[in-house]
UniProtKB/TrEMBL annotation:
InterPro entries: AB_hydrolase_fold, Esterase-like, Mycobacterial_A85_antigen
Pfam families per UniProt: Esterase
The name this protein goes by in its record: IroE protein
The species this protein was found in: Campylobacter showae CSUNSWCD
Organism domain of life: Bacteria
Length: 238
């Protein structure tokens, strides 16, 4: 089941994914899949359709996926300004705090009004979306489970920020993954991606957050859908 709406200049798509052996339940107000966990996903294009389709084909997955599109990727997914990685690319503007306020104060309440109460709220993303997902844990206690899939944790000063700052709440689960070829770069930032991801995952584990670090085969662009599905399944059932 899929529902779309617009709010705060963002396009939100709600996918109600139920386990194959469960009946889609409604609460007293008739809200479908009420009580299922909700994971917010920062969508780059239309990949959430494929993610939801793959999840729906699995046994035992009961989840509401709220994909948010229309994002200003280099601004709203980045925690602070940083120069562009390569020539002819725009710099990173560092607008994550402003967008996070929109997500928590406008988008999330609108989603919950349509879905009903959730067992828990999570946040996930790929690439810069994974960076934003982790960053949000330091700014709001709203999300208790996080998946950073091939996250851009090479971002300038982010490793130091993540290891040295206090979380806003007490996350229950954290999933971090990266491709085994993603750090094979001459770029001074990109080549740190593997170490940063591994270090941050270890930090969460040492902070008594149930965590998983996964090294996937391939570069940054390999099997985005499969990697994301695997991460979301672990958040729900890991």
């Amino acid at each position: 089941m899929k529902e779309e709406f617009e709010i705060a200049r963002k396009r939100v798509t709600i996918y109600r994914i139920k386990a194959q052996n469960l009946t889609l339940k409604a609460d007293d107000d008739g809200l479908q899949n009420a009580g299922a966990p909700i994971v917010f996903y920062s969508a780059f294009a239309n990949e959430a359709d494929d993610i939801a389709r793959a999840l729906s084909e699995l046994d035992g997955v009961n989840l509401t996926l709220a994909a948010v599109g229309g994002l200003e990727w280099s601004s709203e997914m980045t925690p602070w300004p940083m120069p562009a990685l390569f020539k002819k690319e725009p710099p990173f503007e560092g607008g994550a705090d402003e967008y996070l306020q929109t997500l928590t104060q406008q988008i999330a309440p609108a989603v919950l009004a349509k879905t009903g109460d959730a067992a828990w709220l999570g946040i996930s993303g790929y690439s810069l979306g994974g960076l934003f997902a982790l960053y949000s844990l330091y700014k709001t206690p709203m999300f208790t489970r996080v998946a950073s899939v091939s996250g851009s944790l090479w971002y300038k000063d982010f490793r130091e920020f993540a290891l040295g700052s206090h979380l806003a709440g007490k996350p229950e689960r954290a999933y971090l993954s990266i491709g085994d070829r993603e750090s094979m770069s001459k770029n001074e930032y990109l080549k740190t991606a593997l170490d940063a991801t591994r270090d941050i995952a270890a930090h969460f584990e040492s902070s008594d957050v149930r965590s998983k670090f996964e090294l996937n085969p391939g570069n940054h662009y390999a099997d985005e859908i499969g990697r994301t599905v695997k991460a979301l399944v672990w958040l729900v059932d890991g």
